[in-house]
Amino acid sequence: MKRVGALLLLGAALLLASGGDCEVCSAVREDVNLFLTGSTEDYVGNVARYQSSPVILENAKILKECIDGKMTQDDKQDALSVLDKMYASDLC
């Protein structure tokens, strides 16, 4: 898996390990699923629910386009498989 994917998984793992709050897990799950499988517009729209800064929204767009350009569908599926195992954890 490419470095971008590894960083994505590390970030998700840190969020999930930070306290076991199910609300955080569901929010992370939705965000990561959109990030990996959704369109750029859907992902940026989701970010806009929490942040209205044009700089943050532009960075979300750039990051999403980078992921779509760097990760293959297999990479994305592998990342989702690992995350599904984390979501199934007793901590989440």
TrEMBL record:
Residues 1-22 form the signal peptide. SUPFAM superfamilies: Uteroglobin-like. GO terms for cellular component: extracellular region. Gene3D superfamilies: 1.20.920.50. GO terms for molecular function: steroid binding. InterPro entries: CH1-like (IPR006178), Secretoglobin (IPR016126), Secretoglobin_Domain_sf (IPR053723), Secretoglobin_sf (IPR035960). It is found in: Secreted. The gene is LOC112928429. Keywords: Secreted, Signal. Belongs to the secretoglobin family. This is Major allergen I polypeptide chain 1-like. Pfam families: Uteroglobin.
